[in-house]
Amino acid sequence: MASQEKAAPLTAAGAAERLTSSSKGTGRRLRGAVAHYLGTAIVSGRIAPGERLTGEVANSEALDVSRSAYREAVQVLTAKGLVESRPKAGTRVLPRSRWNMLDPAVLAWAFSGEPDLDFVRDLFELRVVVEPNAARLAAARRDKADLKAMKEALAQMRRFTLATEAGRAADRDFHDALLQATHNSALVALSASIGAAVNWTTQFKQRARALPRDPLPDHVRVYDAIAAGDGDAASDAMRVLVELALEDTRSSM
Amino acid sequence: MASQEKAAPLTAAGAAERLTSSSKGTGRRLRGAVAHYLGTAIVSGRIAPGERLTGEVANSEALDVSRSAYREAVQVLTAKGLVESRPKAGTRVLPRSRWNMLDPAVLAWAFSGEPDLDFVRDLFELRVVVEPNAARLAAARRDKADLKAMKEALAQMRRFTLATEAGRAADRDFHDALLQATHNSALVALSASIGAAVNWTTQFKQRARALPRDPLPDHVRVYDAIAAGDGDAASDAMRVLVELALEDTRSSM
DNA sequence: GCGGCGCTATTTAGTCCGACATATTGGGAG
DNA sequence: CTCCCAATATGTCGGACTAAATAGCGCCGC
């Protein structure tokens, strides 16, 4: 990435433009843009852990936003464990171990630039751990509504492929519905993170080249096992699915 | 200042006192207290999902804090997925499925009142899914530093029992060191959540009655297996540990 | 007269500004 | 070496103004 330009304390010049350009779309607020800017700067490593970022007054002026908006953005980062600020000491970046990596926003920031291969591997490892067991639970607890949601997601995946955004959304919906079917709130919470991971990695697979393998049969196998209430089969099918997905992703990066 | 008392919504009366009492200790900032107050109110269900909470001006006056501080607190809640706010529409509580339940702060709020039995069960289910596999990974990847950290944590657990805060901290340190030993950043991120769960549930076990069973041997078994590099044994030992812990917790609630 | 449609009016969050309070740190006085 | 003071950066405050989204009103068409 462009690690060259570091001129002013955090790119005073192009800062405003960068913010506006990434926040223009109806929806994102100003502080959201600032949070995104700072968040990506930290997650990408442009501001290293332990480092102190510029004072509020100076930095908010540099970004051309009010101190209030800037502070609210920093609060968001604080809430996600990226930074910690104390009077006089300033605001400093916390060690990576304190970051809430599972937070959807943090994941989005992590994937907004060049994705860290090791981190992708870690995410898939988490999926390998969680999703097969989730499938097992889902096979035992799913109700009609759960099955319906999963079935519809599969239909959408079939209609649009993973090449389209709608298809990827359906993929996410499938995994989300599966996690929902466990009726476990902790796993459902993980769903947001895993869904994000699925989405970003799939996108990279697509970006790299046409998908060599059709992922649909794998999904169908998982669905059938869950519908049949066969926990072991569901777990196995899901493990195969995730491992194949990892393989595809790895070969395309 | 507050020379007049306002009959505001959201418990205007005891609000200020509650804030001060819970924020007095040197460290917690004012907005942190507000966030804690609102967070517990939401997580505990006092403000139901879909409900609109009082406007910023009114509510900040009721809590006797500036609008800035109040807003920064709301930003924290927004960052954790508890609420969403739009102009004119107001700030409304999001459905539970959108909450970042794994966020340490949210977990703390969830356990600050009466713990939801179902949620505790869900957390243990997550532990059963994650920790045995983590132990397996740790057995394969741990280095000397990891083993040292785990060993020290065990020593601390032996010195102080789980009846003391120091002992519980050691327990958390052990699980944390184990997750660290996987060298998987996603699992490390889960460590904070799992650690919180371990902590709170242990505390409840203690509160209920003297612990009938000594948890140390279980931990030692896990450590030995990891030190030996035996993944299967580590996984099995950890599963036993978590399941026994669940049993203890359940019987004491 | 009735129904739908667009415009304005209002409400509420979002942003901005400038001042003061508080806490921490680092250096200087005793 | 200790203690206190002052410099500094975050924290809190209050009020003003902007922007966005809803709801209600009035206009237009049927």
Largest interface (CB within 8 Å) is between: A-B, 41 and 41 residues
- Count of all domains of chain A: 2
Average pLDDT for all residues of chain A? 86
State the strand order across the main sheet of chain A: 1-3-2
Please state the structural category of chain A.
mainly alpha
Label the CATH architecture of the largest domain in chain A.
Up-down Bundle
How large is the radius of gyration of chain A?
21 Å
CATH topology of the largest domain in chain A: Four Helix Bundle (Hemerythrin (Met), subunit A)
Strand content of chain A: under 5%
Oligomer kind? homodimer
Element-level helix/strand string of chain A: HHEHHEEHHHHHHH
- Identify low-pLDDT runs of chain A: 1-17, 20-26
CA(first)-CA(last) distance of chain A: 17 Å
Query: What's the helix count of chain A?
Result: 11
User: Biggest β-sheet of chain A: count, sense, barrel?
Assistant: 3 strands, antiparallel
Q: Assign the CATH class of the largest domain in chain A.
A: Mainly Alpha
Helix content of chain A: 55-70%
General shape of chain A: elongated
- Give the number of DSSP strands of chain A: 3
